[in-house]
Amino acid sequence: MSALPSYGSRPWTFYVLAALFTLFVIFLYGPMIAILILSFQGPSAALVFPLRDPSLMWFDELFNPRRVGDVMGAFSRSLPLALMVMVLTVLISVTAGFGFRRRFAGSGVIFYTAIASLIVPGLVLSIGILVTFRFLGLSAAWYSSALGAHLTWALPFGLLIMFAILGRLDPSYEEAAYDLGASKWQTVKAVVIPIVFPGMIAVALFGFTLSYDEFPRSWLTVGTKNTLPLEIWTMTTNVTSPALYALGTVTTVVSFIVIALALSSIIIIQRRRSR
Amino acid sequence: MSSAQANTATPAGQQKTGEIRLVDITKKFGHSYAVQNINLTIPHRSYCCLLGPSGCGKTTILRMIAGHEPPTSGQIYIGDKIVAGKSPVERGTAMMFQSYALFPHLSIADNVGFYLKMRGVGKAERRDRVEEMLKRVQLDQFRNRMPSQLSGGQQQRVALARSLITNPEVLLLDEPLSALDEFLRLRMRGELRSLQTELGITFVHVTHTQPEAIALADMVVVMDTGRIDQADTAEMIFNRPKTPYVARFMGGQNVLTGLVEGHAGGLVRLRASGGSIFEFPLDGPPPANGQPISIAVRRDHVRLARQASDLAGKGINEIAGAVTATEYQGSYVKVTLDIGNGLFVANVTDRDYSAEPVVHGDRAVASWKAADVHTLAEIDTGAAADFDFDASN
């Protein structure tokens, strides 16, 4: 590394911003860490500090549906739902991104129509979907109405990311592939997809986490069986044991695992490129 | 060549040649013409440079030959076959992109072997042919590197190798040297020329740099907006430009215009609007009196002297003006005169200059021999921008 240029002593604004950032970090991670610690609470079942006789009993309790509710069931719905939203968001965003590389009549209108659902309040949308389903004589379920509701939230993000990535993709890569005798499909498979792959992972990550954490768009659309965020919300109203904290810890860990998987695959790809 | 190379080239019995013929080619983008009614024949095994300022349509022509852009009307022949609707591989062309367009996710060897892989050539044969091609461009030690780890010059060699592995009859190069620094540019220029000679195929090279075109090409095609002004050898383009545009764009020429006053003793006499009188040898039928004619005089065929008195500089093939700039160029000094209705440039050898130096503000007289005057086929309208490039150095 070359030596950094010296700008003299730090201005007072540096300390203000540093303090602000410290507060932000404490505010963000403090509660999370507190919950993480308290989820190891002992049999005293106290919901507050101090931590007495650390144990794993509340994790055990969590997977015992008689006491806390159907956590495993909620998880078994939330995970496939998030995976479905992830796959659909990637598929639709990538194909739409290709379609939008060329301007066509009405492309602007279609784009803004798709993006507009970002500003529609989630609960309102959720009510609308429920009413429509009732009107059509369909019953709401996590794999149909909730899937649609989640896509209204995840797709615009996926589209925006994919448009930005494909917009930056130099068309001469595809021309070079064509010049070298590749068919359209070979070009997509051997050139375009590998180049935009990190972007596709980002879209997948967005799709997964937006669905996995979604509350307002799930509330009225999941039907009779809860997804995980709804289950947690229900528990806060009727479970008064550290099992709640144990649940928080488990769901956070799952989220972190997904993010870590996504980021490490991006890093591995980039390593391979600049080996 | 190995037998392996033969079976991925053209089917047996078909003789490919790299002659390119453009017949009445027009390309419109929306309502504007990129090129209009282009007719051009590029001979087999020649090094052709398409030269012009940006936006003149030279890259569009290249892309139409390559098959990346269909012409709006007209026909393109490569080796006597109409190539409309054919892919680049079927045309026998390969293109080297300005940005090189090396696939960032593939190693150097995989980039070079891309064409073979797309054709389903087996792994072992692919490796051998890639290795052979990498050795040819002296990059075999970099086979496992990624494109981003190579310097600009090395990346260009990879792009070259990747194009040449298709065994093209025509190599199309889009501003291949523009991304390189001056030193590499000169070196790669030489390498491109010797590669073309060695391979015996047609090279079509797009550039906006005059010295590059003159140094490389058997055939220089000078383009204005959407038109070809002149397609000729470098020597003809530089010494005998057809139009004021070519004379100005190539640099090294002064363009003057006057009305014919008469002819005598094999010399035609012109009178310029400023009163100067120019004479040049009659070539062909004598022009009518009063007809406007534009002439060109090479900058290095001009002699320069200090204006001794107000009367000096009124003779035949003489012009007087105030020195507005002197630029030392090593072997010569470029002296710019303001001659009232424009600029006139004389490239004076350093020896002549030091014998009679002139500086900014001095009055000087430029003179030349009638035999050094070249007549242009078109009248100078003065509309063309005054390109100030020195193709002579």
Strand order of the largest sheet of chain B: 6-7-8-3-9-10
What is the straight-line distance between the termini of chain A? 20 Å
Strand content of chain B: 25-35%
**CATH superfamily placement of the largest domain in chain B:** P-loop containing nucleotide triphosphate hydrolases
Instruction: Tell the overall outline of chain B.
Output: elongated
Under CATH at level 1, the class of the domain at 70-238 in chain A stands as Mainly Alpha
Largest interface, with counts of residues having CB < 8 Å to the other chain, equals: A-B, 23 and 29 residues
Average pLDDT of chain A: 85
Largest sheet entry of chain B: 6 strands, mixed
What is the succession of H and E elements of chain A?
HHHHHHHHHHHH
- How far from one another are the termini of chain B? 41 Å
Structural class of chain A: mainly alpha
CATH topology of the largest domain in chain B, anyone? Answer: Rossmann fold
Helix content of chain B: 25-40%
Helix- and strand-based class of chain B?
alpha+beta
The tally of helices of chain A reads 12
Which stretches of chain A of 5+ consecutive residues score pLDDT under 50?
Answer: none
Radius of gyration of chain B, CA atoms, in whole angstroms = 25 Å
Number of helices of chain B: 12
How many DSSP-defined strands of chain A? 0
Number of E strands of chain B: 20
Could you give a quick summary of the protein structure above?
The complex is a heterodimer of chains A (275) and B (393). Chain A has 275 residues and is mainly α.
Can you walk me through this structure?
The complex is a heterodimer of chains A (275) and B (393). Chain A has helices at residues 12-38, 57-62, 65-68, 71-99, 107-116, 122-135, 145-168, 171-179, 184-212, 216-219, 228-238, 243-273. Chain A has a domain at 70-238: MetI-like fold, CATH 1.10.3720. Chain A is built from 12 helices and no strands. With 275 residues, chain A is mainly α. Chain B has 2 domains: 3-237, 3-Layer(aba) Sandwich (Rossmann fold); 253-375, OB fold (Dihydrolipoamide Acetyltransferase, E2P), CATH 2.40.50. Helix content of chain B is 25%, strand content 32%. Chain B has helices at 3-8, 58-66, 88-91, 108-112, 114-118, 123-136, 152-164, 182-199, 210-216, 234-239, 244-250, 350-355; strands spanning 20-29, 32-42, 47-51, 73-78, 81-82, 93-96, 170-174, 202-207, 219-224, 227-232, 253-264, 267-271, 277-281, 292-298, 303-306, 318-328, 332-338, 343-349, 363-367, 373-375. In chain B, the strands form 4 sheets. A 6-stranded mixed sheet of chain B has the order 6-7-8-3-9-10, with helices on both faces. The longest helix of chain B has 18 residues, at 182-199. The chains are: A mainly alpha (275), B alpha+beta (393). The interface between A and B is medium-sized, with 23 and 29 residues.
